[in-house]
Design a protein that fits this description.
heterotrimer; A mainly alpha (about 270); B alpha/beta (about 290); C mainly alpha (about 290); A: about 270 residues; MetI-like fold
Chain lengths: ~270, ~290, ~290
């Protein structure tokens, strides 16, 4: 009987195996949700803030079905990817210049270092004066957020090209251009990738902050603020969950890409 | 200075000094009055302890450094900067980690004036030469240290240079691999007939591989003497003539009491034959590395 | 030059050593280069403001900003706000890092505990501090506890993860030595695991403090009635950009000072773990 079952339900077998390995991790959240549900049910605490898990699910359903979630999320993501693209491109250029030209590094490097020390969010009020509260201001801010890690990692990656390999290029008579293309860039690739990966994460974090502070327009951050202003805890919790999910997927995507690219080239990266 | 040019490699009166840390106060003389003529096709071993300048000398021949006095001529023409006519095998293989074995060997051919198919043939021929058929698509992290060094040797030879320089190529390998690669190197040299200059601190290796052994001493780096190794190839490590020659060269690194002089070279750890049949009053041996 | 390998420490491009006087000039010029860009920007800015190219609403002159800074300082306002901010960040950091050390150590030393807690922890980490803000706001209101909690959360994450890693990464080889000499579990932890973990722990604390500082600024921008972030918002609302810039400068200066202090502390404690490249802990964004 059991063999027949596992044969006709192969997916259940895999799920079973997965559960067996991971069950401990699920204990805590399961217990927490249970406690939460019980508290909400038992009416010991009476406050409109204590919403039951069921209410959150309801809100989730309505947000999804009414399309509001999609609108907010797509607005946020669109801004984020625009800022990410601009910031990454500019960052690659700036980082390459800093890495390759020692003179440029001496002149611009320290100023850039100082600039990146200041919490980026501190610039938002100024940005809001110069660019308003709408999408332009937000994308500017997001580009800055993406730019910083790309510059740092690109410059570092280029500068840490092993001199041993550079000497090999010299021995083989590589021109400067050849050395750049065939030695420096491949050696710096892992670092550059890290920079781009961080840019994605940072611009996502910046997106939410931007929506709090530059309140024109809508996005997932605005949804959260809205929820808190109207004391709708269910909306807030739902929003948090969505944000966490998006962040997690981006992380997972970037890690998978990294494994793919590094696997057949560097072995133990 | 009547020289006999037309031989393969000529080193004439080469000297190099480094300025001290505070300007020119305490100059450090790294090489002093180095004179060496290497005929085409010969295998020359340079042996000495750390600080005797042997690696610096290789660097000068390679053309990575041109701040020295004296002359280095290759086939009558002075050496100017790096060039494809001189190949090098480093101690750390320095393969590009992002390329497989084939592509790594091909990096040496990037600026060679050959067609694509010619290059491909050369690479394949040299993979066969070092005995790595079947590993063309492997990456450096997937192969052992000894195999990586063989790739480095193939890369050094693929340009058909006039001289192959080897800077302690087997120093980072374990004793067994080292022995095996020494045999390989000898086979390759016999087959290709390319002039080779090997720098090592392993006396046995120097005598095993070289037609001549240049013994260097430090502070300042200079040639102590040159020993001719007049033994047939392939060499036999158990040949008493070989052992005698090896001990003779080794004696340069021992002080009169038969103990290893301070900071001098010592017989290799894997050379059990050396310690067994060697000088009785050997006392405490200290490794140079 | 004592190396046995072929690589020179500095691949030389100059063949002749530069004569002393020329070398001195060169090094002096080198020292001044980093100031070239900021000083010329400053000069440009001052020029633009005084010539009226830029309206003071958009960008007040550097002179004006400097006057405002002096004003803030002498009136005591600066100290008041800096104090408020520093108190928040210190309390939040202390709370977050203590909890983080405890949590990280616990998970690091008992694998089963890690199996139970880490997945949930990782999931909660995915939600950035800013996303927690409305939630915590609803729970505890807009007062000080809000800031403490959020800053603590910001510090908690890197401290926990680094502590966990520190306790995990004791080389098996060292532990085997301890076992061979009959060390009890307690001795192993105290005399092998802990000392080995200290540099990583410190890195975590350092990272935690940087994140705490960054979160402080953000949180104050969004929800507070005093502190440096508040100054920025206040100035913005009144279109007093001089105030905004002055506050930003102070934020930057304090952040820089903290970073340098941590560098020194890290070099002292960690010994060689200091980050010397561009890629240090602080990269500006993070909440």
């Amino acid at each position: 009987m059991t063999t027949a079952q596992t044969r006709s339900f192969p997916k259940a077998g895999a799920l079973h195996a997965w559960l067996r390995a991971r069950w401990r991790g699920l204990v805590l959240p399961a217990a927490a949700i249970l406690a939460w549900w019980a508290l909400a049910r038992l009416d010991w605490v009476s406050t409109p803030l204590l919403v039951s898990p069921g209410k959150v699910l309801d809100t989730a359903a309505s947000q999804i079905s009414s399309g509001r979630l999609w609108r907010a999320l797509s607005a946020s993501l669109a801004r984020e990817f625009t800022g990410f693209a601009i910031g990454t491109t500019l960052g690659l250029v700036l980082g390459a210049l800093l890495g390759l030209l020692p003179l440029f590094n001496r002149i611009v490097g320290p100023s850039f270092n100082t600039f990146k020390q200041i919490s980026l969010f501190a610039w938002i009020p100024l940005i809001s004066v110069w660019f308003g509260l709408g999408d332009v201001a937000k994308v500017t801010f997001l580009s800055l957020a993406a730019l910083v890690p790309v510059v740092v990692n690109t410059c570092d990656g280029i500068r840490s090209t092993p001199t041993t390999l550079l000497e090999v290029a010299r021995v083989f008579g590589y021109t400067r251009w050849q050395t750049l293309l065939h030695v420096v860039l491949p050696a710096a690739a892992p670092s550059i990738f890290t920079g781009v990966y961080l840019a994605l994460i940072y611009s996502w974090l910046a997106t939410i902050g931007a929506e709090y502070l530059l309140v024109a327009g809508h996005g997932i951050g605005n949804t959260l603020i809205e929820g808190s202003e109207h004391f709708q805890m269910d909306l807030v919790i739902f929003g948090m969950f969505v944000i966490g999910l998006v962040g997690w997927s981006m992380n997972a995507l970037a890690r998978a890409l990294e494994r793919r690219l590094a696997r057949h080239r560097y072995g133990a990266a | 200075m009547t020289g006999t040019f037309g031989k393969e490699l000529n080193i004439r009166g080469v000297e190099k000094r480094y300025a001290g840390p505070d300007g020119s106060a305490q100059a450090l003389q790294v090489l002093q009055d180095i004179n060496l003529d290497v005929p085409a096709g010969q295998f020359v071993s340079i042996v000495g302890a750390s600080g005797c300048g042997k690696s610096t000398l290789l660097r000068l021949i390679l053309g990575l450094d041109d701040d020295y006095a004296g002359q280095i001529l290759l086939d009558g023409k002075p050496v100017r900067g790096a060039g494809l006519d001189r190949g090098i095998v480093f101690q750390d293989h320095r393969l590009f980690p992002w390329l497989n074995v084939e592509r790594n060997i091909a990096t040496a051919l990037r600026n060679a004036p050959l067609s694509k198919s010619e290059k491909r043939e050369l690479v394949a021929a040299h993979i066969a030469l070092v005995g790595l058929q079947g590993f063309e698509k492997s990456y450096p992290h997937q192969i052992s240290g000894g195999m990586a060094q063989r790739v480095a040797i193939a890369r050094g030879l693929v340009n058909r240079p006039r001289v192959l320089l080897l800077d302690e190529p087997l120093g980072a390998l374990d004793a067994l691999t080292r022995s095996r690669l020494q045999n390989e190197l000898q086979r390759i040299w016999q087959q290709e007939q390319i002039t080779m200059v090997l720098v090592t601190h392993d006396v046995e290796e120097a005598v095993f591989l070289g037609d001549r052994v240049v013994v260097m001493q430090p502070r300042p780096g200079r040639i102590r003497r040159i020993v001719d190794v007049d033994l047939p190839h392939p060499r036999n490590r158990s040949d008493p003539r070989f052992i005698r020659l090896r001990d003779d060269v080794l004696s340069d690194f021992l002080d009169p009491d038969g103990r290893v002089a301070d900071n001098e070279a010592a017989p290799p750890p894997g050379g059990l034959a050396a310690t067994v049949g060697a000088l009785p009053a050997l006392g405490r041996l200290r490794m140079a590395w | 030059m004592s190396g046995n390998t072929l690589s020179a420490p500095f691949p030389s491009t100059h063949h002749r050593a530069t004569r002393p006087p020329l070398a001195l000039l060169r090094s002096a010029g080198n020292r001044l280069l980093p100031w070239l860009l900021p000083l010329s920007l400053l000069a440009l800015w001052q020029l633009g403001a005084s010539r009226g190219w830029i309206s003071p609403q958009v960008l007040p002159s550097p002179h004006f900003v400097w006057l405002t800074l002096q004003d803030l300082y002498s009136s005591g306002d600066l100290w008041l706000n800096v104090q408020a901010s520093m108190q928040r960040v210190l309390v939040g950091f202390a709370a977050g890092s203590l909890l983080g050390l405890a949590l990280g150590a616990a998970m690091g030393l008992w694998r089963p505990l890690e199996a139970y807690i880490l997945p949930t922890f990782n999931a909660l980490v995915q939600i950035p501090v800013l996303a927690w803000l409305p939630f915590v706001l609803l729970l505890v209101g807009i007062g000080e506890p809000l800031k403490y909690i959020l800053i603590a959360k910001a510090a908690l994450v890197p401290v926990t993860l680094n502590t966990l890693q520190g306790f995990r990464q004791t080389p098996a080889s060292l532990l085997e030595v301890a076992r061979v000499y009959g060390y009890t579990r307690r001795q192993q932890v105290l005399e092998v695991v802990l000392p080995h973990a200290l540099p990583t722990l410190f890195t975590g604390l350092r990272l935690g403090f940087t994140k705490a500082w960054l979160s402080l600024v953000v949180v104050e921008l969004v929800a507070s009635s005093e502190g440096l972030g508040y100054l920025i918002v206040y100035g913005r609302q009144l279109f007093q950009l001089d105030l905004v810039m002055a506050a930003v400068i102070v934020v930057g200066a304090i952040g820089y000072a903290i970073d340098k202090l941590l560098d020194v502390a890290e070099a002292r404690a960690g010994g060689g773990q200091a980050a010397t490249r561009l890629g240090t802990a602080s990269t500006g964004v993070h909440a």
